[in-house]
Amino acid sequence: MTLTRVLAVTSEIYPIIKTGGLADVAGALPAALKAHDVAMRTLVPGYPAVMRALPKAEEIRRWPDYFGGPARLLAGTHDELELFVLDAPHLYERPGNPYVTAAGTDWPDNGVRFAALSRVAADIGLGLVPSFVPDVVHAHDWQAGLLPAYLHYSGGSRPGTVMTIHNMAYQGRFAYEMLASFGLPPESFSVHGVEYFGWISFLKAGLQFADRITTVSPTYAREIQGDEGGMGLGGLLRERSGVLSGILNGIDIGVWNPETDAHIAYRFGARDLQSRAANKAALQKQFNLAPSTNALLLGVISRLSWQKGLDLLLETIPTILREGMQLALLGSGDADLQDRYQAAARAYPGRIAVVIGYDEILAHLIQAGSDALVVPSRFEPCGLTQLCALRYGAVPVVSRVGGLADTVVDIGEADSSRHDATGFKFGPVTSEGLAGALRKANLAFHDHLTWRRLQLSGMTTDVSWRNRAGDYAALYRTIVAARRS
To answer: Residue 119 domain-assigned?
Structure first.
């Protein structure tokens, strides 16, 4: 089979720089694609963490003035990742989060920062690096959204393009006065170009001009074609529905493997599931929860936000307490939600425990030690925590939306779906619906055989990138064939 060369473009990549699931996808997909004869290199911004991870990177190109300052294009490797890096200190040499200041506000020049990333990606697609001329360029989320537009307006021969939506809520909108500074022609600012209600929208640009559009689950692909789920872009997505598809995310089963995980208290697998109890005890101790094998321990690893439905979970705390359950939550986000969760933990010590922030080691222990993982999102393109939960025997309790609906088989729908049940789903997404799902989970937890079947079904579910990567490889080859015909 002919090797397909793909340039991926992303604003974050695990294990170097991560704020969310995008980084996990960008970090895991290249290795999974190798088995499908796809050679993927990934372009990332030269954040401080990226520069530290590639101390021996080779300089390929240098510009004295690139979007306002000197810049270099570098090439290097980190573990199995083959990377290009846009080293532009005036754009990326900043502490902390890639997108926001320490005060939590967007960097004021984010438009320029990510236009520069898209522009150099387009140039690589047009042959800037003779040793790697891609057949396809794959843009991830709004930060790479201008890439298909740059290629469209370049004229002449170009590679195929894919635009992947990881979350419609983030669209990259900037004032139309910035069009010239982005290097786009005046005619691009139209309803059939990058214009979006008087603004420039990076995501709209990608959706308008990409050869193919993907998102991270089949259900989310349907949801975003509606007016509510599309968040202003539903009409465009309906218009382009013929090139839109949903491909489920996977997880790196080398990183998320309870049989080899160095971050958990006791390693275990499906054949020695009783050993999982040691992780529950360790999690209870870590969170200062009362030691108990009989209490259903609910785990949460999440951004604290309206999207994630964490306000709904707060409203179910009376149910959690009345049913004798415990809650261990790891997350950060909305200041009001943080305060309310911390107040609940103070009010109910030993029953409710909260750690504000993110800790990768603690996240692994929650997956290994909680009995059930709760994901009550109002919308969820795919979700990764529930995939990790399946792998670790933490039974998911999820809302019936997006990728959550696609990856969890509810205990009540197993027969009709012809798949074994792996968890609990609820809809509509209300506090009453969530409370009902938690009561069902608690009832099942106290039926040892039922709970064990749920755990084993989850642990034997394929949540890897193996098949998902094959879907991407097939998509790339379809694009290449169409452009050659």
So the answer is: yes
Angle between helix axes 21-33 and 466-484 (nearest 10 degrees) is 70
Residue ranges making up the domain that contains 137 = 4-250+466-484
- What CATH number does residue 439 fall under? 3.40.50.2000
* Residues 313 and 205 both lie in one domain: no
Q: Please check whether residues 452 and 473 belong to one and the same domain.
A: no
Same domain, 405 and 476: no
From CA 137, how far away is CA 153, in angstroms rounded? Answer: 15
Residue with tokens 């084993």: 456
Q: Largest Cα–Cα distance of the chain, in whole Å?
A: 68
182: Cβ contacts below 8 Å, ≥ 6 apart: 111, 112, 115, 119, 146, 200
Q: What is the pLDDT of residues 153-205, one digit of tens each?
A: 998 799 999 999 999 999 999 999 999 999 999 999 999 999 999 999 999 99
Number of neighbouring beta carbons within 10 Å of residue 181: 14
- Binding-site positions for ADP-alpha-D-glucose: 18
Cα(362)–Cα(353) distance, rounded to whole angstroms? 13
- Non-local CB neighbours of 123 within 8 Å, separated by 6+ positions: none
403-458 pLDDT tens trace: 999 999 999 886 565 679 999 999 999 999 999 999 999 999 999 999 999 999 99
Pairing verdict, β 372-375 and 297-304: parallel
136 and 59, same structural domain? yes
Q: In what order do the strands lie in the sheet with 326-333?
A: 352-356, 326-333, 297-304, 372-375, 395-399, 424-426
Residues in the chain: 485
442 and 475 assigned to the same domain: no
Structural domain count of the chain: 2
CA–CA dist 129, 371 (Å, integer)? 50
Note whether 177 and 208 are within 8 A (CB).
no
Residue 203 vs residues 86, 92, 140, 193: alpha-carbon distances, Å: 21, 21, 10, 11
Q: Binding site membership: which residues?
A: 18
